Structures are given as C-alpha cells and as structure tokens.
Amino acid sequence: MRSTWTFPKVATAVGASILGVIWLIPLLWAVSTSLKPESETTRSPITWFPATPTADAYRSVLDQGDLIRWFVNSSVVSVLVTVLTLFVSVLAAFGFSRNEFPGRRVLFGVVIAGILVPPQVLIVPLFQEMTSLGLVDTYWGIVLPQVVAPVMVFVLKKFFDGISRDYEDAARVDGASRWRIVWSVMVPMSRPILVAVGIFTFIGAWNNFLWPFIVTTDPSMMTIPVGLANVQGSYGLRYAQIMASAVLGGLPLLIVYALFQRQVVRGVGDAGIKG
C-alpha cells in the first residue's frame, strides 16, 4: 500500500531534518577541528574541513593523560550508578504505586520535591559526609551521591500505575511473594522503560563533571570528564586538542546510544502512553 504524504507528515519530516542538521553541526565541527593542525584552527577565514588532516591532537591528548585508566573509572562509576539507581528506583516506585500506607502521598511529594533542589546546594554537606566516611578518592565516594534519582522514581511509578493489577493477583494465586512479583512480573513487563531510564542514567553519570572533580584528588581515580579537563588545562587554548578531548569523551556515549536506540525510543514512548 502506497503511503500518502500529507502536509503534516511533510512538515514533521522537514522539521525533524532541520533539527537533525542543527544537532550534527557542532559534532561535525568538533571532529573537523580535532583533525586540523593547531595553526589551522585559528586561521581566517574559517574552513569546515582540514586542509591537511592530522591526528596530532589525538596523539597529544593520549600522551598527556592516562586515558585508559580514566575510561575504566568512568565505566565502573557509570555502571554502578546505573545498576544501583535502577534497583533503588524500582523498589521505591513499586512501593509508591502498589502499597497503601499513611502519609504515602506526602512522602511521594517529598521525593519528587528533590527534583527542585539544585545539586550544587548539596555539594558541601555531601563532601563533608564522604570525608567523614573515608570515601574520598574511592569509587563509592563518586557513586553513592549520584544514586538518588527522584525523576526516575517518578517515571517508573507512573509506568507501574498503568500496569494492570491482574498480573499481580495471578502471581499471588501461584504463591509468589511480593519480592518475586517485583522481579518476575513488574520488571520484565517494564523492560523498555527500564532500558531507557538506564541509558539516561548511564549518560548522566558518564558526563557528570562537578561531583567527581570535587571528590577526587588522585589522578588515578579521575573519570573521563575530569581527566580530560585537566589535560586541557595543561596546554591552554589549543582548540584542536580541546576538540579531540571532547570527541574521545563523547564517543562511548554515541556508541551506547546507537546500540540501544530502539529500546530508548520504545521506552520513552511507553512511558508517555502509560503515564
């Protein structure tokens, strides 16, 4: 059956294409600049493509920093933050969605109010707490303050609200405990939204600069954003190397998103329908 192109479809396609080009321009510019000799980055008039492509900027960044160690640190931190956030958020969302207890609405409102609190407000007390616990320059010191995610609790709670209770009743008839219902009924049915939430959490943890910068002083414990920022600071305003750092730092996220793009889109769509 031949599809009919109506004005709304054409307008949507054109608008999406324009937004895609706008999103790609900075990325293409970063890649192009990273492949230029340093003398060419400040040349006038500005050129989109390098006249003499070179990988010197990438070699300089790799030589000046322990990129592999920072990559491992970012991977460990991001995975731990994602797993713990999903674990805590699923349990909290299920409790708010399925349990009736005094003060449930008030407590849920307090959790959601956390969305309105700027993270910068909590930097000093969190750092003092991590120092008193001896968690400075450790993975747990970087991970634990990032686990609290009221947005994730809100999204999952709304999704759970849209799941029929008949599935739980059937599981209870078969003798399933509440714990078994969560992990054998609710989680499998929520897989798309969990994947989407997990990817967003992973990206946020990978890109987080402020907290890892504050809580780490040992170069061997730095994450990718912190380590690359230190490398950039060591050579000043060298645009090719700055862009090479940005490309190296963002490349893993592009790969992760490309691998899970369908699940993310499906999860976001399901969240909108259920919510």
Helix segment tally: 15
Q: Which architecture per CATH?
A: Orthogonal Bundle
Structural shape? globular
Element-by-element helix/strand order: HHHHHHHHHHHHHHH
> What Rg, in angstroms, do the CA atoms define?
23 Å
User: Helical percent range?
Assistant: over 70%
- Classified in CATH, the superfamily is MetI-like
**Would you tell me the overall average pLDDT?**
82
Could you list the spans in which at least 5 consecutive residues all have pLDDT below 50? none
Sheet-strand content, in percent, reads under 5%
Largest sheet: none
Main structural class: mainly alpha
> According to CATH, what is the topology?
MetI-like fold
Question: Explain this structure to me?
Answer:
- The chain has 275 residues and is mainly alpha-helical.
- It has a single domain (57-274), classed as Orthogonal Bundle (MetI-like fold).
- It has helices at 7-34, 38-41, 56-64, 67-98, 104-113, 123-132, 139-147, 150-161, 166-173, 178-189, 191-207, 210-215, 224-235, 239-259, 261-274.
- Helix 8 (150-161) crosses helix 15 (261-274).
- 27% of the residues are buried.
- The model has no long low-confidence stretch (mean pLDDT 82).
